[in-house]
Specification:
The protein has 366 residues and is of the alpha/beta class. It contains 8 helices and 11 strands. Helix 1 crosses helix 4, helix 2 packs across helix 3 and helix 4 packs antiparallel against helix 5.
Amino acid sequence: MTTDATMPNPSSTPARGSLIGTLLVRVLVPLWVVSGASVKLYTLNPKLLPEPVLLVVRDSARLLGITDLNWWLGFSLRSMIGVEIMLALVMLASPRLARFAASFILTVFLAVLVATMAMAANRDGISAIWSGSCGCFGSISPPPLGMFAIDALLLLGVIFLRPIREAAVPARIGAVLAAAAIGFGLAFVVPSPKISITVPAAPPPVDTADGEVAATPDVTRTLGWGPAPTEIEPFYVADFASWVGTPLSSQPLARLISRPLPEWIDTDRFHLVLYREDCENCHTLLEDHFLGPLDTPAIAVAVQDVDPANALAMPCDECLLHTLPEGPQYVISTPILMTIEGGTVLAVCEDSEDQAAVVATLEATP
């Protein structure tokens, strides 16, 4: 009996793909994705999300009519963590889907990094793309350009280093559903941290010269503001444009302003500035528009998530100085300038470098 020399011998057919490609999509990329998701899950800090993602979350809340931006950001953060863990588990469990899952998540990472670098370069100059931190792994994160290089190399490896093809291995839908259940289960089962603060006690009454007891300020109440909160959220985010036309006291972030508040906060006209002590733009805004005698009262509220060693001197001598409590993550850019009258926010400026917007906010009328 003879054999046809043209027929391939299965035993001599070389294996398609390489061991390196298999290790890349089945081990290295899943571990890389899980490590980033684990940092986000451990900290539950939305400030680790890139700026373009935060903008998408805020815009989607507007589109969907969601008013509780804190809840929506927390839900979005956990959902993103769930997707990352799910895709990493899919890579581990399904040989047929591993390469697709790796390519998809790395492409998303690269697109977000491109948008992040573009926004950083537009705001802070081209050097911003290779300095600072991308935030992906907390305080140990590489700069955006470094993270882009890592993700790009991984994606090129996934594309050009094919994994060993495992014959007759189906893309089991059960494995995908199990990965989704585990990923989203982990993302949503971890409880959010609770932060408690102590409201300062009211000072004791003081006897006046005529023997009467002088009134003391109430550190927990000011007209429509209600009691000062004692339990606060782990993070705060705000869509300041939506504050216009609403009572300042109706905003959860505003109710965190340290007490006692001035008695005229719900009646008089005043300007409010949210600032960080190490923020150069904040310092410039205060120096340009709040230096010297003030025609309109001003309240400057410090966001206390900065390094005191980098603090700049306060240029506004007549500003009433208040703070937001330490502990939460404040997912806001500073400075924020507002004009309030009769307790209602008349105008908000989020871009202090837009002088026309600053002046329009300062001169806003009901």
